[in-house]
Design a protein that fits this description.
The protein has 571 residues and is α/β, with parallel strands linked by helices. Helix content is 31%, strand content 17%. The chain contains 20 helices and 24 strands. The termini are far apart. The model has no long low-confidence stretch (mean pLDDT 95).
């Protein structure tokens, strides 16, 4: 190392919103990305003064947005050294040629090395398509396997795989949304030809949900352009398009909409340009987030490279207290193992608690596996799963479960019979306390929505609390149904009337405030409680704001009380 090189020293769990805030994600200009990289941590334009980044564990956790490693690279950083990297960030960096070093790890992988030597994934895959390079078959001997391993073995054409090996897995479904699909399309045409066609248009779904409401809070022509690019690409390719249904209103948030529309079935391997694509694991799928380069290549080849993850098993037993939900369970787990407790792993949920949960709640568990660093969260299909899936599609599918003697890297066992409501404090999802330990926290904003908190079960929990009550006049409560179907059913069941009569503002479907792109964002110095999945600095509003995470029920009670609470007096 050159002693004159300037090193930026950072800690653990540096997330993608730290690296490049989501609100900067509608402008791909390299100068723009370099300028705003790490703006909330070290200041605007300051990364340009450094040559090397050195950090702790789980660097790059959070979103699958490839703008994070791109911003670091275009700012002139020569290498990022860290104790460990979030798996999606690791793949994205390898794909674009950003140099990474895992401190204290000298292990090498021939496939990853080959991609790096080729100058990145695009060049490597161009050689694959020309027949100049090939991916060797796995040499893993016969062994018992977990759900994740079984699905990846089948998808890669191998009889057996094992954790740590790199494979190319064929996908059954690819999803992208308006915040990413436009850049993916540009990259696809640029490198695979202006007349290139996706490998299978029927297996590609594009969704408008992320930035379609951004102009409600600030002018952003880039967001409009990205949406238009996605729509154009869908028309050119003939793939599935779930577009806006009216100005600024999504048909639904991708992770709720795809299961509703029958695209998700047990046993599938799914890739989405969104880190919360792990939601589909609630249906017995292997589903993970990927970046722009991964998806552009996937459009050409129909497969993706992936390191087979080890699996952590969570045995959740007991009888869940009446007022406790999946959000409380997942926050509890985050409090136990931290944001880097499952980095690069798969999480498999099992036990009597799972059997008690409806499909909406299982989706919340799988969705937030990424907040622990996991690349997917899996729940084996049972009668609850099959009833839902078979009501949505007539397509055939295969239920895949772990072998009885499958090897797990670690097994966690929790009896949740006495679990109390859990709260994640700013500014990380693992800063979790039981609500009784929190103390008094007045709030000004409350939000029930997103792929985690806007499902029908979530709105039912809020309506149960708010029936016959009023939101505190000092609090603004926003509710966002996660899809048009959720909105319609909530209307038919009377939930929306109850919410509006209580003083809540029911907004159009979409991601909105969750990603700092719609009504409901936090202003300067505000304190809010949100039923979303992340509370990173600046994630859902101004970086000076304080955002607490909780279940929809606790958010609703807090909106009535004017402070974070799980206690509501009888009417």
């Amino acid at each position: 190392m050159n002693i004159s090189e300037k090193i930026l020293i950072l800690g653990d769990d540096i997330n993608t919103d730290d690296i490049i805030p989501a609100k900067r994600g509608t402008n791909a200009d390299p100068a723009h990305l370099a300028r705003y990289a790490f703006e909330h941590l070290i200041g605007e334009g300051k990364l340009l003064e450094y040559d090397i980044i050195e950090a702790g564990h789980n660097f790059g956790c959070g979103s699958s947005r490839e703008f994070a490693p791109i911003a670091i690279k275009v700012a002139g950083i020569k290498k990022v050294r860290a104790r460990s990297f979030a798996e999606i960030f690791y793949r994205n960096s390898i794909n674009i040629g950003l140099s990474l070093e895992i401190i204290g790890d000298s292990q090498q992988n021939p496939v990853v090395d080959a991609i790096a030597r080729a100058g990145g994934l695009i060049t490597f895959n161009q050689k694959r398509l020309r027949g100049e390079v090939s991916v060797p078959k796995s040499l893993t001997p016969a062994r018992s396997m977990t759900m994740a391993e079984k699905m990846l073995a089948r998808a890669s054409g191998n009889a057996f795989v094992q954790p740590g090996e790199v494979i190319f897995a064929k996908v059954d479904l690819a999803m992208s949304h308006d915040a990413i699909a436009g850049p993916v399309a540009q990259l696809f045409y640029q490198h695979f030809g202006e007349n290139a066609k996706v490998w299978n248009a029927n297996k590609v779904v594009l969704v408008a949900d992320h930035f379609i409401q951004i102009n409600d809070i600030r002018k952003d022509e880039g967001a409009t352009k990205m949406h238009q690019q996605m729509v154009q690409f869908a028309r050119e390719q003939g793939c599935h398009l779930l577009d806006v249904v009216s100005p600024g209103e999504a048909a639904g948030i991708c992770h709720v909409l795809l299961p509703e529309k029958g695209f998700i079935r047990p046993g599938m391997v799914i890739a989405g340009t969104d880190s919360h694509s792990c939601t589909y694991g609630a249906f017995g799928c292997f589903s993970t987030g990927v970046g722009t380069t991964d998806m552009a290549n996937l459009f050409a080849t129909g497969d993706m490279w992936i390191r087979v993850p080890g699996t952590l098993l969570f045995e959740l037993s007991g009888t869940l207290p009446k007022q406790i939900g999946a959000k409380d369970i997942m926050l509890f787990i985050l409090g136990q193992i931290g944001c880097n407790g499952a980095t690069g792993k798969a999480i498999e949920f099992r036990g009597s608690i799972i059997e008690q949960l409806p499909i909406d709640e299982r989706m919340t568990l799988a969705n937030m596996a990424i907040e622990c660093g996991a690349i997917c969260g899996l729940i084996a299909s049972d009668e609850v799963t099959l009833k839902y899936v078979q009501s949505r599609t007539q397509e055939e599918f295969e239920v895949i479960t772990s072998d009885r003697d499958a090897e797990y890297e670690e097994i966690y066992r929790f009896d949740l019979s006495s679990l109390e409501p859990q709260i994640a404090c700013p500014q990380k999802p693992d800063r979790v306390v039981s609500i009784g330990e929190l103390g008094e926290v007045p709030i000004t904003r409350a939000f029930i929505g997103s792929c985690t908190g806007g499902k029908l079960f979530d709105l039912a929990q809020a309506a149960e609390v708010l029936k016959g009550r009023r939101v505190d006049p000092r609090v603004s409560l926003f509710v966002v149904p996660a899809s048009g179907e959720v909105r319609q059913k909530a209307q038919e069941l009377g939930y929306l009337d109850i919410l509006e009569q209580a003083g809540a503002q029911v907004l159009k479907s979409g991601c909105g405030a969750c990603i700092n792109a719609g009504i409901g964002v936090l202003g300067k110095e505000e304190t809010g409680i949100y039923a979303t999945n992340r509370n990173f600095k600046g994630r859902s509003g101004d970086p000076t704001a304080r955002n607490y995470l909780a279940s929809p029920r606790v958010v609703a009670i807090s909106a009535v009380k004017g402070k974070i609470s799980d206690r509501i007096e009888d009417k």
